[in-house]
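User: Hey, my collaborator sent me this sequence without any context and asked if I could get a structure. I don't really work with proteins. Can you help?
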Amino acid sequence: MRELVFGLDYEPGCNRVADALVEHPDARIRSLSLHATSESLWRVDHASGSSDALADVENAFLTADYYADCLATDDCGATQTTQVLEHADDTLVLYSYWERTPTCASVPHTALDHLGEGLLFETRNEGRRYTWRIVHPGGGDVRGFFDAIEERVGDCATLDVERLTEASSPREASPDEGDLRPEQAEALRAAVEHGYYETPRAVDVGELADRLDVPRSTLTYRLRRAEAHVAKQRVGEMRSTDGASTPL
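Assistant: No problem. I've predicted the 3D structure and written it out in structure-token form, which is a compact way to encode the shape of the chain:
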């Protein structure tokens, strides 16, 4: 089994859900299930955040003409249904279904076209970043898959490939664990060199993103993952030291 992990960083006005999330940094959306056939797609998503954030996310799902993973930049004529399964103070669960038309494109359908059947999908939405994890049997045209995604999103989003590896267990595949990836190390190094961690800060995340010529949301994501990695590594070292036996 092979694993693909990549992010789509959406420009303002290109994705109603991304536009809603960027206004609420506390909000997150993750897929509970996601399935696609050549003709249709259905999924269940869990959103968390403040009551205002969830209200905006719900409105984005219910009023967008072509949200549920459609990569079209205009209304593609798909028939879409979205239902609220649960809406509590800090939880929102939504079911979405749509039937594909000849002009529709989506990440799952593009994956079916290039990677074959037997695919598993996981997604996370934070701010303008939409992260996908796809587990597939292996083989297929991976390069063609990414080329097709880039072509279909056009200027609306930037594709950022995070990982292409053998599929591992859910714990090992956690984005906060394992080796620090090069792009995360670069972001962390630049943040230190330009005074991002000084008090007061010598540069904010927007200015640092401009220096590195990457989207702000991409840099924020990379720094967050790098910081989590370093923190967990340090705590692990502290536990190892604390647990070491004292020589007699």
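In plain terms: Residues 169-178 have pLDDT under 50 and may be disordered. You can pass these tokens on to your collaborator as they are.
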